[in-house]
Amino acid sequence: MHTIWKGSISFGLVNIPIKLHAATEDRDVKLRNLHRDCHTPIKYEKVCPSCQVEIKQEEMVKGYEISKGKFVVIGQDELAALREEIEDKSVEIVDFIKIEEIDPIYFDKSYFLSPNEGGKKAYSLLRSALRESNKTGLAKISIRSKEQLAVIRVFKEAILMETIHFPDEVRKVEDVPNVTSESSISKKELDTALLLIDQLTTVFDPEKYHDEYRSKLLDLIHSKESGATVVTSKETATTNVTDLMAALQASIDSTKPKRKKRTTKKATKVQ
User: What is the C-alpha to C-alpha distance for residues 148 and 143, in angstroms, rounded to an integer?
Assistant: First the structure.
């Protein structure tokens, strides 16, 4: 597994040398844009619209737009100085909390932590302490010039770090249009919805769920590659139910287990 960062975890006076590994991966199927006539990949050039010339990387500077068309220019040396101030290659656990106290909206990316040289015992100590206390470490870390909050918890036999958003990065729910606390649903509608939820409730098994679009896209790519004929299956017809109660009842009926029909034999009269 590729190492993307090396540093240490500290809590109190304990310091653990660690390596950081991405816990998830992007499995999207990448499609290139091609010229329709000759199938040549399209080239994207960085062009200055004012000077009408292609710009090289060394000719670029960073800028923050303070108003339309007006920028504050920031030099690469200034950015480098800021990075040096915050990139101390350490994950400092500042508090211990319960994971249930964090709403999932705050979670961002997940990383596996592995012990670096000389850190196995301290790594095991932190893992055992987190398990026994049923607590999660709240830490600060700087990755790729961005300071972030993170939670440190145990996942199976590894220590997992999940970066979380700062509060000001989560938009206010009050700004969401057309959302109101008022409700006009009836008790019957609520009871039917609760029955549907109860019938669909199960134990979470991640292996049950798959990216169907990606699978179909890969099948299409492989069939075209081998020259096979692509056959499109007919989708199951859906009923256009507009009544709320009818939609709930139809959903409940569709989730009920199908019963086998019993066959009854007529008794034969003995003469």
Answer: 8
Return the H-helix or E-strand segment holding 212: helix 212-226
Residue ranges and CATH numbers for the domains of the chain are: 5-28+81-168 (2.40.290.10)
- Sign of the torsion angle spanned by Cα atoms 176, 182, 188, 190: positive
pTM of the model: 0.70
* Residuewise pLDDT in 10s, the chain (271 residues): 889 888 888 887 788 899 989 998 888 888 888 888 888 889 888 999 889 899 988 888 899 998 888 999 888 888 877 777 666 567 889 999 999 999 999 999 999 999 999 899 999 999 999 999 999 999 988 877 778 899 999 999 999 999 999 999 999 988 889 888 877 888 898 899 899 999 989 998 988 888 888 888 888 888 877 776 555 545 554 555 557 777 777 777 777 766 655 555 554 444 4
- CB count within 10 Å of CB 74 equals 13
The position carrying tokens 């034999």 is 265
CA–CA separation, 112 and 223 (whole Å)? 37
Give the number of C-alpha atoms closer than 13 A to the C-alpha of residue 68, restricted to the C-beta side.
0
How many other C-beta atoms lie within 10 A of the C-beta of residue 140?
A: 14
Is residue 40 a contact partner of residue 34, using CB atoms and an 8 Å limit? Answer: yes
Q: Closest Cα partner for 160 from 113, 98, 127, 115?
A: 113
- DSSP labels, 146-186: EEEEEEEEEETTEEEEEEE--GGGSPPGGGSTT--S-----
